[in-house]
Amino acid sequence: MNRGDLSAVMEIEKxxxxxPWHLSSFEGxxxxxxxxxxxxxxxxxxxxxxxxxxxxxxGEEIQISNFAVHPDQRRKGMGSSVLGRMLGIxxxxxxxxxxxxxxxxxxxxxxxxxxxxxxxxxxRKDYYSRPQEDAVVMLKRMK
Length: 143
Prior knowledge:
Blueprint: H1 6-16, H2 23-31, E1 36-42, E2 49-58, E3 61-69, H3 78-92, E4 97-103, H4 107-115, E5 119-128, E6 133-141
Parallel strand pairs: 3-4
Antiparallel strand pairs: 1-2, 2-3, 4-6, 5-6
């Protein structure tokens, strides 16, 4: 991800989340070299940004902080493909544990993560706003 991608990233963010990140948050992720790893998902033919994933690495622990696919591109295998590739990259970087939070009501995302071996490890009460909702903490131990 670079600054030139941010217009497309913000469009996807606003279509994907009821309480979207601000532009400055994405700018901060791009600037936070060494800890934050922001990637865009680019359509192979049109070269348009179709989604993004951001993860943080601190030692052997990885936190997926934001992951979205454009609503028009969902249910086509893109999210699965990207998550699989990113988990491979995380493993190469020495990750032993990968965590994330997801809205309790986001059953499709929770199912995707379970297919990749994530387990529900707990909840964060009232973690999300607009609407207020608990987060499910999911965890994957890398092998």
